[in-house]
Design goal:
The protein has a domain at about 65-240: TIM Barrel, CATH 3.20.20. It is about 45% helix and about 15% strand. α2 (about 50-55) links the parallel β2 and β3. It is of the alpha/beta class and about 250 residues long. The chain is globular and about 45 Å long. The protein contains twelve helices and eight strands. It has helices at about 15-35, 50-55, 80-85, 95-100, 105-120, 130-135, 140-150, 155-160, 180-200, 200-205, 215-225, 240-250, and strands at about 5-10, 40, 60-65, 90-95, 120-125, 165, 210, 230-235. The two termini are about 15 Å apart. It has an eight-stranded parallel beta sheet with strand order 7-6-5-4-3-2-1-8.
Length: about 250
C-alpha cells in the first residue's frame, strides 16, 4: 500500500509573530513547489492565526502543538478544539515534553485524541521510550502500551485518520538519532503490530507513521528509505527554512 509521505515542523516554544512570518517567508517558496509530500507547520499558539492566514490558498497544512479535550471550561491556560478548528487541520498530542514536564499520561493523551477526532482535527500521536527504558529492554513494552492506550475507544472509521510519530525520548534535541533500521523495526514490530491487533491489517498498513528525533538534512533520506517510515516530525531543523525544505525534499517518493 502506498502511503503519502508527511513531514511536520514542530516549532515548539519558538517564534514571535514577527519571527514566524520571517521563518515562513524563507521556506514558503520551497514548500509550495513540493506536491508529493504533505507538509504541516506547527507554530506556537500565538502564531497560529498569522501562519494560517499566510498559508490560505496553498496546500500546506497547519497544526497545533497541543490541545485540551474539553470544548470550554475553567481550564486556565488551555486551548480547546473549538478554538483550533478555524486554523488547524492537525494537532500534535502526547509529545514527550508534554508527558515529562506537564504531567500528561496515556489516559489524558487518549482523551485528547478522541476529542480531536470528534472535531475533525487529525491527531499526530507521539510515542517513544526514554533512555532508561531502552537500556532496560522495555522499548517494545512502552511503545506498544502508549499506542494501545492512546487509541482506546477510537472507532474503526476514525482509525484511518490518525498519524503516529515514533519519537524515542533519548533522541529528541540531543543530536542523537536512532539508526534508521532500529526506528523502522520499532515501527514495524511495535506500532504497526498494535494497529493490526486493534484495527486490522488494512488500517495498520494504511496508517502513516513518522519518525522524530534529531532529523536533519544529512540523515533524513536514510530514515525515509525505510519501508515503514512515512515521514518525520521535525523539531530544531524546522526552525531553519532551508533545512526544513531539504528534509521534505528528501521525503519525496
Amino acid at each position: 500500500m502506498i502511503r503519502k509521505p508527511l513531514v511536520a515542523g514542530n516549532w515548539k516554544m519558538h517564534a514571535t509573530e514577527t519571527q514566524a512570518l520571517t521563518l515562513l517567508e524563507g521556506m514558503l517558496p520551497g514548500l509550495i513547489e513540493i506536491k508529493d509530500v504533505d507538509r504541516v507547520i506547527c507554530p506556537p499558539f500565538t502564531a497560529l492565526s498569522i501562519v494560517a492566514d499566510q498559508l490560505t490558498g496553498t496546500d500546506i497544512y497547519v497544526g497545533a502543538q497541543n490541545m485540551h479535550w474539553e470544548e470550554s471550561g475553567a481550564y486556565t491556560g488551555e486551548v480547546s478544539p473549538l478554538m483550533l478548528k478555524s486554523y488547524c487541520q492537525y494537532v500534535i498530542l502526547g509529545h514527550s515534553e508534554r508527558r515529562a514536564y506537564f504531567g500528561e499520561t496515556d489516559e489524558t493523551v487518549n482523551k485528547r485524541v478522541l476529542s480531536a477526532l470528534s472535531h475533525g482535527i487529525i491527531p499526530i500521536i507521539c510515542v517513544g521510550e526514554t533512555l532508561e527504558e531502552r537500556e532496560s529492554g522495555k522499548t517494545e513494552e512502552v511503545v506498544q502500551r502508549q499506542v494501545r492506550e492512546g487509541l482506546k475507544k477510537v472507532e474503526l472509521d476514525h482509525s484511518k485518520e490518525i498519524i503516529v510519530a515514533y519519537e524515542p525520548v533519548w533522541a529528541i534535541g540531543t543530536g542523537k538519532a536512532a539508526t534508521p533500521e532500529d526506528a523502522n523495526s520499532v515501527i514495524a514490530h511495535s506500532i504497526r503490530a498494535v494497529l493490526t491487533t486493534e484495527f486490522g491489517n488494512p488500517v495498520a498498513e494504511g496508517t502513516r507513521v513518522l519518525y522524530g528525533g534529531s532529523v536533519k538534512p544529512d540523515n533524513a533520506r536514510e530514515f525515509f528509505s525505510q519501508p515503514d517510515i512515512d515521514g518525520a516530525l521535525v523539531g530544531g531543523a524546522s526552525l531553519k527554512a532551508k533545512d526544513f525544505v531539504d528534509i521534505i525534499n528528501a521525503a519525496r517518493p
